Amino acid sequence: MRHTRKHFKKRGRDDLPMVDMEREVRDVASSNDVRTLVQLFPEEIEFLLMRLPPVTKVEDLDTLSERLSGLGGKEELGFSPLFCPLLIDAACQRGIFPLALSAGGDRYIFAPKLHHHRCLTQLEPPVEGFPMPNDEKEGKFQVGLLQVSKKYLCGRNERTRARSFDVFINRKEDIAPALSLIVSQHGENWMCRALRACFAHMFLNQERYRTKIVVVTVRRHCYGADSREKAKTAGEGVRDFAEGDHVEEGDLVAAEIGFIAGDIYTSATGAYSLSGSGTLQLAVTGEAMRSVGCKVWDLGMAMAYKSQVLGCVTFPREKWLRLVREHVADTSLAEKIEGRLREKFSEGVAVRTLFSLTDK
């Protein structure tokens, strides 16, 4: 098995320069204030105010849907020059996706997004509010539809050291490698440095926020008597790779970052470095979230593959907002679910084991 970068964003013919993600995360961990205020010129603010509703405080999020409707119903974004964990937490609790929007050059502004339609699938059906299905596939996640390659389903074998893959969730040592892989694949995009800092801070300080950040990683299994320690060590540093490099034991092959609000899991972004491991990433994420009590998987904007292989249905904006309000009402849910994730997956679960335990 070999790593691939063919799907990574390029600068001309070259890979993008590698971001020092370990340093970014260290800076976040050592900082008491990770907020970023982006400097905008008066004419830029005027331009934005003509097109998007401003979000300068938490209360502005409560009126975002109404203000977007007042703009003719076409827009989905608000804007703020401030990236702030408290504002992001509040947005997630209201069903508003924390996005960033390019403001020219290397500047980004916070752009909370309220989709016209949200793409959802049930992890524990039936969920009240979901439409009656037209067939057994509609509206619910079934891992078999993803057709994960058999090369990822091999069991562990200490004697032959057969290639096997493990799922880790919410290990602190995985946040830098996961973000590094994501930025390497997608470049500096909506998950910009200021937003990454907020996500990393919320991840490292879960107890301060109702929204729980989730980091999912898939790694090749490490063998040996000290396999647990080797797997831990493998996650402590960011390892770069070139096209065609062999996938070594402990190597990261897929990662996802998302968040939990109530018992709804929302996928934010992800990346992969091995053919077929993007599909694997989706499969293990869905199965893992289902195994710890998440009832709904939110996949954001509608795309064909989401309905075809993930069983997604679309919720219009107001219906989505009602669903979120109902599912975040119990303020203890997300904390319990995140605790189960760490308890179950922090030391790694074999992909084969995960699928066999949660297959439905």
Describe the structure.
By secondary structure, this protein is of the alpha+beta class. It has two domains: 33-110, no CATH class; 117-358, Aminopeptidase (3-Layer(aba) Sandwich). Helix content is 34%, strand content 17%. It contains 13 helices and 14 strands. It has helices at residues 21-29, 42-49, 58-62, 64-69, 85-93, 175-186, 193-204, 227-234, 277-291, 304-309, 317-327, 333-345, 351-358, and strands spanning 10-11, 14-15, 36-37, 82-83, 100-102, 108-110, 117-122, 165-169, 212-220, 252-261, 264-272, 296-298, 313-316, 349-350. The strands form four sheets. Strands 13-7-12-11-10-9-8-14 form an eight-stranded mixed beta sheet, with helices on both faces. Helix 9 links the parallel strand 11 (264-272) and strand 12 (296-298). Helix 1 (21-29) packs across helix 6 and helix 9 crosses helix 13. The mean pLDDT is 93. One of its GO terms (molecular function) is leucyl-tRNA--protein transferase activity. One of its GO terms (cellular component) is cytoplasm. InterPro entries: Leu/Phe-tRNA_Trfase (IPR004616), Leu/Phe-tRNA_Trfase_C (IPR042203).
List the helices and strands and how they pair.
Elements: E1 10-11, E2 14-15, H1 21-29, E3 36-37, H2 42-49, H3 58-62, H4 64-69, E4 82-83, H5 85-93, E5 100-102, E6 108-110, E7 117-122, E8 165-169, H6 175-186, H7 193-204, E9 212-220, H8 227-234, E10 252-261, E11 264-272, H9 277-291, E12 296-298, H10 304-309, E13 313-316, H11 317-327, H12 333-345, E14 349-350, H13 351-358
Parallel strand pairs: 11-12
Antiparallel strand pairs: 1-2, 3-4, 5-6, 7-12, 7-13, 8-9, 8-14, 9-10, 10-11
